[in-house]
């Protein structure tokens, strides 16, 4: 079923984001940013649980892993952070990049499932990710 495939794609994105935010929370030395990154990791964990419930409700099989693209992004994040000296600006830029990709996937899913009752939940997730992208842009200006 195409809906399950779409939801599993979003689930992988949320696994990616959760792990990515955990990684940057470990790398920053700024306690305010650490809390912010941990909060966003928890948000994506929550989204993941909601998506898993929907997939199960639809009778689908839940994908358990992250995406290859997400794994590569986290690897790049580690390299970039090491080269840039773990600067908060570099960490914020990479978070923004990852969230922008997640936002694009959510927009595609909302468009694809617009006649499906799930589109409302996905639009709510998307709105929260938009907020995070905007917050990251603001943080980037002050880092």
Automatic annotation (TrEMBL):
<dbReference type="InterPro" id="IPR016920">
    <property type="entry name" value="UCP029477"/>
</dbReference>
<dbReference type="Pfam" id="PF09537">
    <property type="entry name" value="DUF2383"/>
</dbReference>
<dbReference type="InterPro" id="IPR011971">
    <property type="entry name" value="CHP02284"/>
</dbReference>
<protein>
    <submittedName>
        <fullName>PA2169 family four-helix-bundle protein</fullName>
    </submittedName>
</protein>
<dbReference type="InterPro" id="IPR009078">
    <property type="entry name" value="Ferritin-like_SF"/>
</dbReference>
<dbReference type="InterPro" id="IPR019052">
    <property type="entry name" value="DUF2383"/>
</dbReference>
<dbReference type="InterPro" id="IPR012347">
    <property type="entry name" value="Ferritin-like"/>
</dbReference>
<feature type="domain" description="DUF2383">
    <location>
        <begin position="3"/>
        <end position="111"/>
    </location>
</feature>
């Amino acid at each position: 079923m195409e809906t399950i495939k779409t939801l599993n794609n979003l689930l992988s994105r949320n696994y990616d984001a959760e792990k990515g935010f955990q990684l940057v929370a470990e790398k920053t030395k700024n306690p305010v940013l650490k809390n912010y990154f941990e909060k966003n990791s928890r948000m994506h964990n929550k989204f993941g649980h909601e998506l898993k419930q929907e997939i199960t409700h639809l009778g689908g099989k839940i994908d358990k892993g992250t995406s290859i693209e997400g794994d590569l992004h986290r690897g790049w994040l580690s390299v970039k952070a090491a080269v840039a000296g773990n600067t908060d600006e570099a960490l914020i830029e990479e978070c923004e990049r990852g969230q922008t990709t997640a936002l694009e996937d959510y927009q595609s899913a909302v468009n694809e499932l617009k006649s499906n009752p799930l589109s409302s939940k996905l639009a709510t997730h998307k709105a929260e990710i938009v907020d995070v992208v905007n917050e990251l842009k603001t943080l980037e200006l002050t880092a």
